[in-house]
Design a protein that fits this description.
Elements (H helix, E strand, L loop, with lengths): L35 E6 L1 H4 L7 H9 L2 E6 L5 H5 L2 H8 L3 E5 L11 E3 L7 E4 L1 H6 L11 H11 L1 H25 L3 E8 L23 H8 L4 E6 L19 H5 L4 H18 L1
Parallel strand pairs: 1-2, 1-3, 3-6, 6-7
Antiparallel strand pairs: 4-5
Helix pairs in contact: 2-10, 6-7
Length: about 280
C-alpha cells in the first residue's frame, strides 16, 4: 500500500526524532536511557489512523518502555540507511521487526528513495532491456510501476518477482544480523503467508507483497522468535470502525488493518516478549 501519511489530519501522531536519525517517528518520544523494547516496521507499526497502535498497547500491558520506530510505507532500506536505528535496536532488550513487503527497496532492477521507500526513483539498464516498450519516467510509486509491468507480461515479470524476493532475503539476513540483542519477527496481515506455489498471476498479491511462507521460514532462522498474527476484518462491520482519519483519507483507511488487528498483535507479542525478558 502506498499513502502519503505525514500530512495534516485529525489524529496527532506527535512526530519526533531520536538521536542523529533523519526520520520522523511517531511520538510521544520515549527515553532511550532506560531499558526498552524497540519496534521496527512500516505503516502498521507506525499506526496510521490508529489511536493506540500495538507498541503502545504492549507498553500498557507489560509496563515496559516501548519505542515505536515504525515509519510509513517503509521497506527494509529505510532502516538499513539509518545507522542510528540499527544501533538503537541493538541496545534494546528485544527488537520486534515487522515483516515488510519486498517491493519497497532498491534492487538490481530499480532504485527507491532512501527514506520514502515506496517512491520509485529509476529503472536499471537491465529492467529497461527486459521491458523495452515501457517509459519508466511515467512512474512515481513502486507498486504502480510493478503492477503495470505484470499486466504487460506475467512471464517477464517472474524475473522481477524473483529478484525482489532474493533481495528481500539477503536484506533481512543482513538486518537481523546487525541487531545484537534478541529479535522477534512479526507477521501482521489479514492472511497467513502463502506458499511459493500459490503466488497469484492475475495481480501483485496482498501485503506484505511477494513474501512467501518459505521466505518467512528462512528469515526466521536469523531471529530469536517468530510471531504470526492473522487478523481478518469482520465482513459485517464497517471497514474503518474505530479508526481516525480525515474526509479525504476514508479510502486509504478502509484498506488498512484496524484497531482489532493491533489488539491481536499486542496480545500475541506481549506473551512472546514476556517469555524473552
Amino acid at each position: 500500500m502506498t499513502y502519503d501519511v505525514l500530512g495534516p489530519g485529525p489524529l496527532d501522531y506527535l512526530p519526533c526524532r531520536y538521536g542523529a536519525s533523519k526520520l520522523l517517528f511517531r511520538g510521544p518520544r520515549r527515553n532511550l536511557e532506560a531499558p526498552y523494547v524497540a519496534f521496527l516496521g512500516g505503516t502498521e507499526t507506525y499506526g496510521k489512523f490508529i489511536e493506540q497502535p500495538y507498541p503502545a498497547l504492549i507498553e500498557q500491558a507489560t509496563g515496559r518502555t516501548c519505542v515505536n520506530f515504525g515509519f510509513p510505507n517503509a521497506g527494509i532500506d529505510v532502516f538499513a540507511h539509518d545507522p542510528f536505528v540499527a544501533q538503537a535496536a541493538s541496545e534494546a532488550e528485544v527488537t520486534v521487526l515487522q515483516v515488510m513487503g519486498a517491493q519497497n527497496m532498491t534492487n538490481r532492477f530499480y532504485s527507491v528513495h532512501p527514506r520514502r521507500n515506496d517512491r520509485f526513483v529509476g529503472a536499471s539498464a537491465l529492467l529497461q532491456t527486459i521491458y523495452r516498450e515501457v517509459d519508466f519516467a511515467e512512474y512515481h510509486f513502486n507498486r504502480h510501476m510493478l503492477n503495470h509491468l505484470m499486466q504487460l507480461s506475467p512471464e517477464r515479470f517472474e524475473a522481477v518477482r524473483h529478484e525482489l524476493q532474493q533481495a528481500w532475503l539477503a536484506r533481512m539476513r543482513l538486518m537481523l544480523g546487525q541487531i545484537k540483542g534478541k529479535t522477534i519477527l512479526l507477521w501482521l496481515a489479514d492472511h497467513a503467508p502463502h506458499p511459493e506455489n500459490r503466488q497469484t498471476v492475475a495481480d501483485l498479491g496482498a501485503d506484505p507483497l511477494f513474501v512467501t511462507r518459505e521466505m518467512l521460514e528462512e528469515a526466521s532462522q536469523h531471529a530469536t522468535a517468530v510471531v504470526q498474527v492473522v487478523s481478518r476484518k469482520d465482513p459485517e462491520a464497517e471497514p474503518t470502525e474505530g479508526m481516525v482519519f480525515g474526509q479525504m483519507e476514508a479510502l486509504a483507511a478502509s484498506e488498512m488493518l484496524g484497531p482489532k488487528a493491533h489488539g491481536d498483535a499486542a496480545d500475541a507479542l506481549s506473551a512472546a516478549l514476556l517469555a524473552l525478558l
